[in-house]
Amino acid sequence: MAARGVFITFEGGDGSGKSTQIQSVRDWFESRGREVIVTREPGGTELGTEIRRLVQNGPEDVDARTEALLYAADRAYHVATVIAPALERGAVVLGDRYIDSSLAYQGAARSLGVDEIASLSAWATRGLYPSLTFLLDLPPEVGARRRTDAPDRMERESMDFHERVRHEYLRLADAEPDRIVVIDAVGTVDEVFSEIRGVLVERFEGGSVTIDEADDSVPAPTQEALASSSEAPETPEAAEKPREKSANKGSARKPATMVGALGESQGALWDE
Known about the structure:
Elements: E1 6-12, H1 18-30, E2 36-40, H2 46-57, H3 64-88, E3 92-96, H4 99-109, H5 114-125, E4 132-137, H6 140-146, H7 159-175, E5 180-184, H8 189-206, H9 223-228, H10 236-249
Parallel strand pairs: 1-3, 1-4, 2-3, 4-5
Helix pairs in contact: 1-8, 2-3, 3-5, 4-5, 4-7, 7-10
């Protein structure tokens, strides 16, 4: 039986260690004989590299809508030329940032509206959603202390901006607990990967399906789920509640039927 494509994304604030963990997950899949494609947004293509330069180190007067459209353009090209072809041939695609980043950064923190950014992203990607997302959760002040390079345009935003990003990520995880697994990124590299590896083993080896037996459809987030995530939290303490609720559901550890990477519409066919 031919292996089917698997699309996994990694999300989190600056300094959460996504790139390091992606390499460990790459090694995990490759040791099991899978082709693995590691990519990022923006920057996974030649066009994306230029867009990354513009949004991270371009003019300071780039407004929020322009920023959102640049990310959407990058994502459309990225899916069409890298992600979808890799999934079609049965590869495992590990993405450093995807739609959830736009929902958190532009939809919530930039106040453009989570529903609006979700609709834009769904159109740009033809409805392609990951089957699993690791959210590496880290307090923004911890991420800032981990920074070794000069901060880029996004990293220079206020601590309040980055708190709003984190709160929205946690709300998204609460709305989609079967897809988004929250990982505490405060620990050491080995401790964080131990948590990630546990999820991989359960979902791809010890759960109800194997890597090669995943379904072929990924539902887009429901309007109800998006609506529940569009309200800004009143306090940092309130933002922790969704995380606790998600953990109580046991979604991060419960063996579940793992859905595949390609949505029905595809059948026609962000290093921190």
